[in-house]
Specification:
seven-stranded mixed β-sheet; binds adenosine-5'-diphosphate; 10 helices; Phosphoribosyl-aminoimidazole Synthetase, Chain A, domain 2; 350 residues; 60s Ribosomal Protein L30, Chain: A; four-stranded mixed β-sheet; binds magnesium ion; 2 domains
Length: 350
């Protein structure tokens, strides 16, 4: 289904480990002030002076987290970086460096890794993070990618999951559910392709949601916006597993309850249309679909005038006393308990 733009296949064994690392990493630039030493020594050296260092790691395994039959390697590289940067931004921090570790089987030629690194490189440039290290090894089966992201935050400016208070507003950036519906489209096209390999999928009606799945953007811009608006959220988390499980994380760690209003959840028209086509409830998708990488936060009522009317920030509910529990208030004004059905890596075995 994905056009092979690079038909050349150079076996990795032709280069050997050191040449391969050199080949993949020699074009990375250093732009961050905090990077003292990047790739090339036994370890990188970073200096954050008076700022706090924020660090987060993610591991992506072929067949569990991604399917190379419809995910182009360039997109995979880009997304692998986004997933990590998103965690840094969710701390109200700015990402500064990443390390990239890969395990590859000999089924991957050099050109495949070049594609992967092209995506990593694009993401690093666009989000202004330095690639300062990593590790490269072989794997007996699929591809494994682990990225560690580092970031900085001024002392006292970090936002944890645990700071929400009753009466705080629950706010989400952008819109949600798109990545999940994009995945439904890609899975459907994969099945069609299996039956008829000549078929050329027409995805033009689904460009936004397919892009949400294949090429998500971490919300660095929202961290910058919050700073500009002079709003420090009381708690924050990124939406990787779905709104309901992230809301539950905020509530549990902050020891509060929540009322989420169904009619306030921001959905793109393409998500609504595709849900209708698949005959799935769009609220269910927004609550349980994942991988949107939007930010979910709570802000104090006092800050409401600062965010009011901003198209990037939707108030979808408010926090309550813990004993009141966690509820979705439906369009019919029924209150139903929120339960976690989010994507769970350990339950996702094929
Ligand atoms: P070591 O033997 O100490 O593990 P390596 O030969 O693996 O060193 O790595 C050499 C340099 O290249 C180090 O700076 C390391 O961080 C970096 N590096 C290795 N693999 C990768 C990779 N896949 N992506 C980015 N940097 C890498
Ligand atoms: Mg090594």
């Amino acid at each position: 289904m994905i056009e092979d733009k690079n038909p050349k296949r150079t076996p990795l064994s032709e280069l050997g480990e050191f040449k391969l690392i050199e080949h993949l990493t020699n074009h990375f630039e250093i732009n961050q002030k905090s990077t003292v030493k990047g790739i090339g020594d036994d370890a990188a050296i970073l200096s954050f002076e008076d700022k706090d260092l924020v660090i987060s790691t993610d591991l992506l395994v072929e067949g569990v987290h991604f399917d190379l039959s419809y995910v182009p390697l360039k997109h995979l590289g880009y997304k692998a970086v986004m997933v990590n940067l998103s965690d840094i931004y969710a701390m109200n921090a700015i990402a500064t460096q990443i390390t990239v570790s890969i395990a590859v089987s000999n089924r991957f030629p050099l050109e495949a890794l070049e594609e992967l690194y092209a995506g990593i490189s694009t993401a690093a440039k666009l989000y202004n993070v330095d690639v300062v290290g990593g590790d490269t090894t072989s794997s007996t089966s699929g591809l494994i990618i682990s990225i560690t992201a580092l970031g900085e935050v001024e002392k006292g400016n970090q936002v944890l999951r645990s700071g929400a208070k009753p009466n705080d507003l629950l706010v989400v950036t952008g819109d949600i559910g798109g990545a999940y519906m994009g995945l439904q489209i890609l899975e459907r096209e994969k099945e069609v392709f299996k039956v008829n390999p000549q078929s050329q999928p027409d995805l033009s009606m689904y460009t936004y949601i397919v892009e949400r799945q294949l090429k998500p953007e971490a919300r660095k811009d929202m961290v910058e916006l919050l700073k500009q608006l002079d709003v420090k959220p009381t708690s924050m988390i990124d939406i990787s597993d779905g709104l309901s499980s992230e809301v539950i994380h905020l509530c549990k760690q902050s020891k509060v309850g929540v009322d989420v209003y169904e009619n306030k959840i921001p959905l793109d028209p393409q998500v609504i249309a595709t849900c209708e086509e698949f005959n799935i409830d769009s609220t269910t998708v927004a609550l349980n679909g994942g991988e949107d990488y939007e930010l979910l936060m709570t802000i104090s009522q006092e800050d409401y005038p600062k965010i009011k009317g901003n198209p990037n920030l939707s108030v979808i509910g408010y926090m309550t006393e813990e004993r009141k529990g966690m509820h979705l208030v439906t369009r019919a004004e029924e209150k139903i308990p929120i339960i976690a059905k989010g994507w769970n890596a350990l339950n996702n075995q094929p």
